[in-house]
Specification:
2 copies of one chain form a homodimer.
Chain A lengths: L4 H12 L2 E6 L14 H13 L5 E5 L11 E5 L4 E4 L7 H13 L13 H4 L1 E5 L10
Parallel strand pairs in A: 1-2
Antiparallel strand pairs in A: 1-3, 3-4, 4-5
Helix pairs in contact in A: 1-3, 2-3
């Protein structure tokens, strides 16, 4: 069976390198008005559905402290940079899983900008280096 | 020699649990105007000075993707939540080290709000859970 090279690489890397999406389930929408279920809960459900069969773990988290720019999620992979995204909605589940796979496949631990889904470009809130980061010139 | 109980606890914990402050050295000031050295470089130097003798590691990092609300820094400790702060300035070195010690001493991996220095309250941008987080109710 023919498989494009990139797909094979991604699958192999994703299997070797566990990646997790943390979706904030306490996030309200941009208006700040409360609702039941909260937008964060709907986003978490959509993300879990999008993750089905991909090997990406989706977890609920209570507050990523990005309340003014929620709904929020973080993508984390051991040894890689961690990314926090905001301004998400229920339609962003697929984008989060796609971003998680990009991060898992990135040899340099950085989620590539090229090919990154739009919601993860415009919604980038912050990124945090891996514990063992050593910048050039330190 | 008399040592207050809290000081003793913090020292013991900091020794056991390595904590790192990552200061973004590419951050400009709130105006966005470039300067040499950049405010992030000055903050990194002040933080390194404040860390002297505390056991806290201070590292340079190029971009925490919090550019619109810099200068920025992240505080990270293995097994704990990771915190990103913004709106900092050269006077915030001591606050970052104090926050790092609070995090290293926190048994639950959460930087306590009570006792947290003011710049780390008003400047909170986001927090990211440790890899092994398991929320109640999942």
């Amino acid at each position: 069976m023919f498989l494009p090279e990139q797909t094979k690489t991604r699958d192999a890397t994703a299997a070797a390198k566990a990646v997790t999406v943390y979706v904030c389930v306490t996030c309200r929408g941009p208006s700040g008005v409360d609702s039941d279920p909260r937008p964060g809960v709907l986003l978490a459900a959509a993300t879990a559905q999008a993750a089905d069969g991909t090997g990406v773990t989706v977890r609920h988290v209570e507050c990523l402290a990005n309340c003014s720019r929620g709904p929020s999620a973080a993508v984390r992979c051991k040894g890689s940079w961690t990314y926090v995204f905001g301004g998400l909605d229920v339609g962003c589940g697929e984008a989060l899983i796609e971003g998680a796979n990009l991060l898992a496949a990135a040899a340099d631990g950085i989620m590539p900008w090229r090919g990154r889904p739009e919601p993860l470009k415009r919604g980038l809130i912050a990124r945090v280096p891996p514990l063992d980061l050593q910048e050039v010139g330190e």
